[in-house]
């Protein structure tokens, strides 16, 4: 399947600069470009590649100014990164497999109504009382517990486990190995023994959520663990019982949220961030990778470090730490001179 520069520009509202008839049939990173490929330039660090790339078409910002001749045809757009995402989504919709029907062997519990356009893969198990929306795709070896609700157009990839009573909204994507609704980590120490606290709540996932592979979202002790609309969780993330993640928050891999912590809307969380329990993180907070969050944070904060501090303070601490050895040597030299003076 090929598209010309003129066709692509008309799809994304761009302006062609160069040969509008040149065609592409694939995508490539700008540094790995080749004939017939479409690339994009969004990060200024990669600007030098545009003068040597072999890609046929490159998406650039409207205000991009070339410093040297460029062989590729340019399509000028407002945001090359958002535009490439839009084009990738279009191609994925056209080329992705669209399985349908009910494969055997699979199990669908008594009383479960399946829309005509649903897909149930081989060895999947849908428990009694589950509610499955239109266009849902349940891939092989998925477990859907009793009373679970799955909204329209949601996809559960192979090996997903959704425990009883949990709810997943519409147009969600849950990747392989994810577990929604396992027991929260609740134990009461009594006479040196840890007695299990029953986890009687559930997990409620909003619409347009993506949950990465092997991510675990624990059910609440009481009430619900809540994942808001538009949330994107990377692979290998732990969300503990009774946590809340606000709408359109994104979180990178290997982060962990301890119980009852509430994260606001529109937050950006780097990889390997650890949250203590019972915190309140405000809206639009940005948290750098490997940070340790030990206290609540106001709206709009930019923090990093262990324990996390305001980003500017973290930068100053890092510089001071880098100079610590030199400072130690200076102090040792001063002490030695003072000691020599005292002896004289």
From TrEMBL:
Sorted keywords for this record are: Acyltransferase, Lipid A biosynthesis, Lipid biosynthesis, Lipid metabolism, Repeat, Transferase
GO MF: N-acyltransferase activity; UDP-3-O-[(3R)-3-hydroxyacyl]-glucosamine N-acyltransferase activity
Species name: Muribaculum intestinale
Catalysed reactions, as listed in the record: a UDP-3-O-[(3R)-3-hydroxyacyl]-alpha-D-glucosamine + a (3R)-hydroxyacyl-[ACP] = a UDP-2-N,3-O-bis[(3R)-3-hydroxyacyl]-alpha-D-glucosamine + holo-[ACP] + H(+)
Annotated protein name in UniProt? UDP-3-O-acylglucosamine N-acyltransferase
User: Is Repeat included in the keywords of this UniProt record?
Assistant: yes
Name its pathway.
Bacterial outer membrane biogenesis; LPS lipid A biosynthesis
Q: Where does the record place the UDP-3-O-[3-hydroxymyristoyl] glucosamine N-acyltransferase non-repeat region domain?
A: 22-89
**What this chain does, per the record?**
Catalyzes the N-acylation of UDP-3-O-acylglucosamine using 3-hydroxyacyl-ACP as the acyl donor. Is involved in the biosynthesis of lipid A, a phosphorylated glycolipid that anchors the lipopolysaccharide to the outer membrane of the cell.
Protein's GO biological process: lipid A biosynthetic process
């Amino acid at each position: 399947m090929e598209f010309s520069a003129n066709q692509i520009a008309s799809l994304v509202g761009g302006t062609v600069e160069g040969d509008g008839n040149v065609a592409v049939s694939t995508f490539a990173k700008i540094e790995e470009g080749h004939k017939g490929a479409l690339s994009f330039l969004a990060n200024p660090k990669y600007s030098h590649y545009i003068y040597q790339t072999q890609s046929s078409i490159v998406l650039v910002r409207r205000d991009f100014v070339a410093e040297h001749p460029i062989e590729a045809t340019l399509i000028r757009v407002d945001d090359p990164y958002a535009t490439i995402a839009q084009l990738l989504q279009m191609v994925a919709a056209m080329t992705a497999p669209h399985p349908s029907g009910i494969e055997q062997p699979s199990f669908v519990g008594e009383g479960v109504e399946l829309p005509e356009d649903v897909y149930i893969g081989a060895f999947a198990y849908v428990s009694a009382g589950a509610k499955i929306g239109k266009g849902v795709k349940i891939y092989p070896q998925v477990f859907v517990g009793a009373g679970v609700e799955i909204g329209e157009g949601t996809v559960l990839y192979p090996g997903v486990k959704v425990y009883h009573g949990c709810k997943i909204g519409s147009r969600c994507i849950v990747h392989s190995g994810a577990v929604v609704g396992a027991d929260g980590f609740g134990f009461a120490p009594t006479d040196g023994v840890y007695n299990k606290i029953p986890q009687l709540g559930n997990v409620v996932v909003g619409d347009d959520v993506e949950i990465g592979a092997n991510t675990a979202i624990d059910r609440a002790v009481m009430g619900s663990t809540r994942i808001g609309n538009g949330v994107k969780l990377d692979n290998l993330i732990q969300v503990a019982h009774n946590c809340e993640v606000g709408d359109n928050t994104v979180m990178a891999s290997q982060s962990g949220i301890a119980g009852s912590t509430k994260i606001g809307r529109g937050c950006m969380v780097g990889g390997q961030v650890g949250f203590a329990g019972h915190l309140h993180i405000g809206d639009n907070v940005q948290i750098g990778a490997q940070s340790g969050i030990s206290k609540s944070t106001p709206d709009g904060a930019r923090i990093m470090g262990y324990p996390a501090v305001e980003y500017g303070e973290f930068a100053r601490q890092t510089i001071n730490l880098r100079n610590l050895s030199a400072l130690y040597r200076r102090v040792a030299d001063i002490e030695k001179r003072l000691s020599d003076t005292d002896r004289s």
